[in-house]
């Protein structure tokens, strides 16, 4: 139990880059930003902020409850990295995203990126990814038929909607199209979706379309350009944005640029008379941006075209974005130019990159807006809840239930991306490149060609899936549903993760739960913009709070097969020592429960018993 005013406690120290601690998290150059640090009342002697080579003394600005708040000012003239030094008696502490420590690691410093604009609509938006061929067949007249053409030595195959995905899938077509998405727009709106991310839709011989043969036109099996314009307009009428998939690093080997005349030979890299293939994929010839100013300008125009009238797409997801070009310097220059051109055409467009590893080089406000959050979300969440790597090809039992490893992993990665990128990052449990999360809950390694379809459906733990979705919708960033996850769809990694949506055969509990958690996410502004503070980190137990000046939402998880009794220190997020809180959601084996349960804080603690494989959300409305 917390004893009040007993001197310095590292757990009382907190700051971040939200509006709770920065007067403006997205400042302009020249703007003065007030930076705040929270400490336990009367627990410190001196506080300093260090930014670069400059040391800024901090003064106690006010006291609230058991906390003192120290402030100083920074004038924004460049990208800033900063940390705090705290003196208490003879002790010296350093505070950054790694926590309050007796040692310093600059890798975890806070950042402020002036002039870094991200569109408001994207901050914490509920997104939904559609692999178009597998979502809904709205127009059978455009279906690819048996042996319509041969690609990579394989004839096309027209699949029935209930057919199992085959191990060699690239020429198998189920008939999903833009008309199907339009027909399901009410379903998506009722689910609570605020933005669609569509996998590639430009002309291509494959079902996945990452081997584009024409950047100017929608593939005929999906519809046409006018249908895309109509779909985006329809989505906008339902309050839904649309993000397109931009495959600019490579094209398909059937693109007209590779015709026998060689007119566009400079568009490609060559080894003798053979073009260089991206990662050895012969149907993915890598594009030579350095060697062709014409290609460079063409792709910028493509970036502009689809976010402009009459299409008005709301942004781009950039496939293998860091691979474009032959040097990192050139790559960055292209994305800077791309950003300028796209944002000039559509000032509210989002530029979201597929990227693994450290993205800081591109996230200074002049290139990408944000990333698909593999390292800061998908991978650590998978390890914590399932003990599995995101492809289901490797078991990671040492990570199962290890809340400390989870906290350290996400904190380390969150240190690498500015606040603007963090609150717009795409947080997925599954997608078209990785196994379905529900399949990962069985703890088995495998792939379609080694274990078959049915094994991906065996030994599932739906309660674990529910808990992971709760974390997904309460985490900083954009919770992004991969089509069918909300219906209980399963599957090994590519291509089994691309099963058709099971219309009429949805898991009713999973679907109802996704509607509920989406509603909760949209009803609580602290989940979009608030601070994220860890309150309890134990083996098999994790508790964090999302909070702002008006609200605190306590998010608790039990990953073990037994009940857990938790003493949660809610005082640490500024709640009264006798606060009354309300549980608004419980998930466990058997489903979810929205019955409201009261908790009364006892000297700053609430005592919560969590069932096996469960999660709960406990709400507190602050009275200012």
Quantity of strands, as a count: 33
Please give the largest β-sheet: 8 strands, antiparallel
Mean pLDDT: 96
Q: Helix share of residues?
A: 10-25%
Q: Identify the overall geometry.
A: globular
Radius of gyration over all CA atoms, rounded: 25 Å
Span between termini: 26 Å
Task: Figure out the total of helices.
Answer: 13
- Detail the poorly predicted runs: none
Q: What structural class do you assign from the helix and strand content?
A: alpha+beta
Strand content: 25-35%
Characteristic key phrases:
27% strand; single chain; globular; alpha+beta; 20% helix; eight-stranded antiparallel beta sheet
Structural summary, described in words:
It contains 13 helices and 33 strands. Strands 1, 2, 3, 4, 5, 6, 7 and 8 form an eight-stranded antiparallel sheet that branches. An eight-stranded parallel sheet has the order 22-21-20-17-14-9-24-23. Strands 25, 26, 27, 29, 30, 31 and 33 form a seven-stranded antiparallel sheet that branches. Helix 4 runs parallel beside helix 5 (328-345). It is α+β, with helices and mostly antiparallel strands and 624 residues long. 20% of the residues lie in helices and 27% in strands. The radius of gyration is 25 Å and the shape is globular.
Summarize the structure.
By secondary structure, the protein is α+β, with helices and mostly antiparallel strands. It is built from 13 helices and 33 strands.
Layout of strands and helices, then pairs:
Layout: E1 32-40, E2 46-51, E3 54-64, E4 67-75, E5 80-88, E6 91-96, E7 99-101, E8 110-112, E9 127-130, E10 150-151, E11 154-155, E12 157-158, E13 172-173, H1 178-183, H2 185-191, E14 195-198, E15 202-203, E16 214-218, H3 225-237, E17 241-246, E18 270-271, E19 274-275, H4 293-305, E20 315-318, H5 328-345, E21 350-353, E22 370-371, H6 374-386, H7 403-414, H8 419-422, E23 426-428, H9 437-440, H10 448-451, H11 462-474, E24 478-482, H12 508-523, H13 526-529, E25 531-538, E26 541-547, E27 551-558, E28 564-569, E29 580-588, E30 591-593, E31 597-600, E32 605-610, E33 614-621
Parallel strand pairs: 9-14, 9-24, 12-13, 14-17, 17-20, 20-21, 21-22, 23-24
Antiparallel strand pairs: 1-4, 2-3, 2-5, 3-4, 5-6, 5-8, 6-7, 10-11, 15-16, 18-19, 25-26, 26-27, 27-33, 28-32, 29-30, 29-31, 29-33
Helix pairs in contact: 4-5, 6-7, 6-11, 11-12
